[in-house]
Amino acid sequence: MAFSMHSHSGQFCPGHAKDCLEDIILTAIAKGMQTFALTEHMPRNSEEDLYPEEIAAGDTIDPTYSNHNAYITEALRLRSKYTSQLHILIGFEGEWIRPSYGPLITSLSSNPAIDFVLGSVHHVHGHPIDYDTSFYAQAVAASGGSDEKCFEAYFDSQFEMLLALRPKVVAHFDLIRLMCATPNISLRSLPGVWEKVVRNLRVVVEQGGLLEINSAGLRKGLQEPYPGRAVCEAFMGMGGRFTLSDDSHGIEQVGTNYRRTFEYLEGLEVEELWTFERSKEGLGVKSVSLAYLKATFRE
């Protein structure tokens, strides 16, 4: 069964993504998806944390979280409407910008409609690290002036997130590579960084979390999906479990680069991935063979 555990829509992420949520769901069905997770970005609580494109689209800080609440309402409607065609999971991307976001993420995740939270880090010292090279340079400067120190700060922030949130899914584990001068570098070649990588992976395994193989890395020009091969090999050696995501931001990106991602997984000798399944007993983890996933996915 083809699936994705990470997606966004322009309807509820204005300026950041495209297309309405229902059209994205219809595209997922057309591509053979049998499980599809809706994971819009969480609301922010500070104007300084909005991206330029969000500000340009008129997004503002709303203490009532009306957009997020409207998303939950629409997600529930669509899950009911398409229940015979698609197993829809409802979640959100919990973005750890600073520790003060912890209580907000915990509060939002307490809604009974929420199946799971994607644990992610997009900032270092308050600066976006995957938006453009200018913002990334600010993160590097705030970290002490080198990519390596910025990487270390990123994985320290991720460690804080893991301990505070215990997310069921960890998103784009090594996103920090994207804007650096050598984005395809093996993190194993940076001893101080690698120590923190291994520490964080052990926490994910101990917490029973899933590590996302995210095909968006290929779409953004990397040679491999997130995370890179060295990270995946270390995680596999610990007995860690992978899930799969397209991290789509509109209908054009649903399932994008899945075939290349399947080849990457085969090269790692991954034979099964994991997703979630709702039942009367609650949310359970379900194994899906890579062979079956490949057979059911449609371009």
From TrEMBL:
GO terms for biological process: L-histidine biosynthetic process. GO terms for cellular component: cytoplasm. Transmembrane segments: none annotated. GO terms for molecular function: histidinol-phosphatase activity. Its EC number is 3.1.3.15. SUPFAM superfamilies: PHP domain-like (SSF89550). The keyword Amino-acid biosynthesis applies. It catalyses: L-histidinol phosphate + H2O = L-histidinol + phosphate. Residues 5-216 form the PHP domain. Keywords: Amino-acid biosynthesis, Histidine biosynthesis, Hydrolase. Pathway: Amino-acid biosynthesis; L-histidine biosynthesis; L-histidine from 5-phospho-alpha-D-ribose 1-diphosphate: step 8/9. Belongs to the PHP hydrolase family. HisK subfamily. This is Histidinol-phosphatase. It comes from Lachnellula hyalina. The lineage of its organism: Eukaryota, Fungi, Dikarya, Ascomycota, Pezizomycotina.
